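ENTRY TYPE: paired fold submission
RECORD: A
CONTENT: sequence, then structure tokens
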Amino acid sequence: MNRLKPRSKAAWTFEFLFVLFFGVLNLVPIFWGLITSLKTPNLINTMPPVIFGFTPTMDHYVRVLSSGFFKCIVNTFMYAIISIIAGVVLGYFAAYGFVRREFPLKKLFFFIVVVGIPLSTGSSVLLIPNYMYLLNIKMTNHWYTMPLIYTAYHLPMAIWQLIAGIKGIPSELEEAACIDGANQGYVLGRLLPPLLLPSVAAAALLIFIGAWNDYITASVMVGGNDLKNIQMAIYDYMGYFGQEWGPLTASATCAIIPILLVFTFLGRQLVSGLTAGAVKG
């Protein structure tokens, strides 16, 4: 036993340094973008770069927020929230059907769900066919265009996530509730949802991140300032003659804050949801 203690300590040290290294690797670009957004244009181009000891300015943030950027934030939140509600509700009923019910072609439909999971990362291959199809039926450039696409893209992952959660709930619990007089509506509406909160949270967070970070699909499907999302607004500061580093980093900093807040306060729910059903007691 004594011989294992030095190895355990060494393993712990290695894991700590490993996490620290990748933590710093991920935080340095965020820190660099933050301090760049607080510099004057002349100071941004100074060589060697000035990291500390300068007077911060909020001019870039004022310019960004006064140029319609807040409208893009609202649009993105609207796209994400509608997509989350639709994706979680549809995914919940579909997952329950896959786990608790038998129906014709069940394996085929489940295979389709599994094949569709990579869509949650966005599919450039399907972008043009989707655009041509939605254009023919006049469903591009509407407020519901992006939520419809995000829901379709992330629904397979939501179903997969919720299937794992439902599998972790014993079917005997539902049977006992039905014996006590509960109907199917009570089971689906009140009994299972509280038990599925980690899986629901994980599915919702993945949909939110996908909708919040999307640029390619939105830049093709919608146009104009009224429907522009936050990523499209960031790219406005990357012009043909170069980048406007001040407004670019300011807008990027504003865009990354919600993602950081989500992972700070709900990261544990995401991990719990991703591991739901992995261990069955």
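RECORD: B
CONTENT: sequence, then structure tokens
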Amino acid sequence: MKSLEKQKRIFIVVSLVVPMALLVGFVVFPAVDLIRMSFTDWDGYSASWNWIKLDNYISMFRNENLWLSLKNNAVYFFGHLIFIPVELMFAVLLTSKLRAAKFYKTMVFMPYIINGVAIAYAFSYFFSPVNGAFNAVLSVLHLDFLIRNWLSDEKIVNEVLTFVSLWRFSGYHVILFMAALQSLPQDVQEAAQVDGATTWQLFKYIQIPAIMLMVDFVLFDNIRGALQVFDIPFVMTSGGPGYASSTFTLYTIDTAFKYSNFGLASTMAVAIMVMIVVIYVVQNKIIHGVVLRRDKE
């Protein structure tokens, strides 16, 4: 027995060596090096650099364009946040006995499978002011007063890009919610229906509490995705006009590769890591507080 326990321990240690090495090599070490770089003025190609203490952090907080970019990120966040109940309703509908449910599931998930750059290019032509399909549809419907330059109007450009992001990622969230709903014990739901529970009561008191962990994950994915959104604004508008549709990640990459300021870009990368961690911790406390309150009730 002692020999078997020893072999188990050796197997566990050996199994953990490779993933731990990969974690340290590709996550921990780059993160530490990123923090070190944020205190320098390295331009990305010179062999030397200087320590500049907190200058990059001070410059970051004083950068108005960066704050505007972060404000644009908030549009993506709130757009996806508001849409989560709709995704939940679609998930409930698709897990019910719906005719042609498999077809609808495929259609819902399809946008997430398609390459993000391809989607961005397709929607660029769709919203184009020159022979764009969307303006053509509005013209056919005699809604010419709504026609405008969708990707160059500062007032609406972020909402348009958020719509594209919703079209691409909502199916992924629907599939996640469906997976969580399908894992619920059927006998519990059937017992509730026998006792006279309505569809809304079943959804509110049985399904939602049981999938709170998945709701927590989707909320975190929303936060992470909103802060790191890059491909859609980069391809469709390049952050323009001006910085009207720039995002935190897009501005960070421009700072590093367009303006050759890797030190300041590293500072921004550290800031976005801290924001994600802090928001996730706060969100976790709120979600767990809600769950505990429901359990007591």
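NOTES ON RECORD B: DSSP finds 13 helices and no strands in the chain. Residues 91 and 177 are 6 Å apart (CA to CA).
STATUS: closed
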